[in-house]
């Protein structure tokens, strides 16, 4: 028998769940529905309230019953089971779902939503302790004449009264107010803002004001889903254009500006020539790939002299653990032939530092790669790169896993692949690695499961972190001077992760700092500087030219360990940088401004994000500034029990000699003739 959640109805502040049953073979008199919360394993049993037919049943619930007071849990994820507990037969069936609901407010600070997991099983999600200054809407669209907004006009069955939509200017105190008077459906409102009301050359943000239980409420309008499928751009007479944009915090911006002139439109048409150039480049790249595949299939024999190929992040940098290992090799064994595999962008760096190199995807690159005896890399080589039997491939990887990897990603949504194909390619590539470097037991277990890895693991810590252990205070001052950072100021480092939803179009990425630099300068600017370490794809999307007196962008600086060393405080969100920064026993703050959106829509986490982190979590920019102030006043975390528990779990095995241990491993292979 199968059970499928096929509908949810709101009735007097309660929820009526409708289930479709397939292949029913037993009577339902003793059946009931069981809800099990995935984290706490709490359970709630609900009887069948109505049998509509042989295969349709209903169950009444009150969503308020499905969350409870907990100091460390604000998210409740309930799985649903149908239990038939007759004397002769007991069946336990997990309920599937074909019903995905919108977000419904329980209170100002909590909501519920019905979803399904990667296997299509029903989930009943409840989130508490959310911000009370946000109001979720369903849609926002531009028509030829109006800006149209739809949303719910009830909170858990209680009618919202006297609703007004506010369009507030970013540059002035001006605001436009529109009362909500129309219903879209029962329980939903719609409001239309005439486009002719929107001021020229303006940027405005949307808010809502209303009465609830006699209290006046004002909130920002937000929308958690993407704006895909909605109308977000309109051309108006008089050379006007209006666009809608979703902010980093899910708020909605309304922008009015002058449209493109006739001359600009002609110029844009001429831009099609660049599209043709892109097509030609794409054809050339494909032809080059065919040539590479052919060259790798040609027979090669190893060099007589031992040769090691190093590569970092697919050739984009000369950095990270491979570079740390390379420097030890150059000191101890300069007679070994060592060559870096690089993109053309790294040629200048290699020449300035007397580093032998070969440019990727050239004939010479194929020959050197195939004739070398050792490959040392922190990322995967393309699947079409052939690994000869005499090559020892050492994979250093590039971080302690926080976000799920490889086989542990249940649903792969990247273009050009499927989940099955992605998993197969990942396992095939991982098992070309002869040895994989691991920083701790936690990572070792994940690498085994996520990579399907069956070869040797070197649990020695990451070589790149040797610098964090061995650097002296006078060395840190020298790094500050090299970077141009004042020696008499504290340093806050902001290093967020790259989000998959920051991709705008080919070659273009978006990012907006999730806190106000003017507020930061007002609070800390006299004795503190801010350094930024953004993902390379979005590092050029920021304009900080007005803040050059206290903000430094080191997104393209190759050695992130130097940035750790000069920083008194790290702020991050989901990036695994905090695992490395913890070696310094300095404070770490977490600012996951889109945590629940990121967790639900993108990849999941291995750690419990709300329990296992070594620092405090700031939920909004005001709290972030307060926590920065506290952290800078308490720079040493060695006496913090929670922090040190994290340190002992993730950092303790690295003794500052990890690079040397990899070098010794390679030398053992050479000396034993393996």
Automatic annotation (TrEMBL):
<dbReference type="GO" id="GO:0019350">
    <property type="term" value="P:teichoic acid biosynthetic process"/>
</dbReference>
<keyword id="KW-0808">Transferase</keyword>
<dbReference type="Pfam" id="PF04464">
    <property type="entry name" value="Glyphos_transf"/>
</dbReference>
<keyword id="KW-1003">Cell membrane</keyword>
<dbReference type="GO" id="GO:0005886">
    <property type="term" value="C:plasma membrane"/>
</dbReference>
<dbReference type="GO" id="GO:0047355">
    <property type="term" value="F:CDP-glycerol glycerophosphotransferase activity"/>
</dbReference>
<comment type="similarity">
    <text>Belongs to the CDP-glycerol glycerophosphotransferase family.</text>
</comment>
<dbReference type="InterPro" id="IPR043149">
    <property type="entry name" value="TagF_N"/>
</dbReference>
<keyword id="KW-0472">Membrane</keyword>
<dbReference type="InterPro" id="IPR007554">
    <property type="entry name" value="Glycerophosphate_synth"/>
</dbReference>
<keyword id="KW-0777">Teichoic acid biosynthesis</keyword>
<protein>
    <submittedName>
        <fullName>CDP-glycerol glycerophosphotransferase</fullName>
    </submittedName>
</protein>
<dbReference type="InterPro" id="IPR051612">
    <property type="entry name" value="Teichoic_Acid_Biosynth"/>
</dbReference>
<dbReference type="InterPro" id="IPR043148">
    <property type="entry name" value="TagF_C"/>
</dbReference>
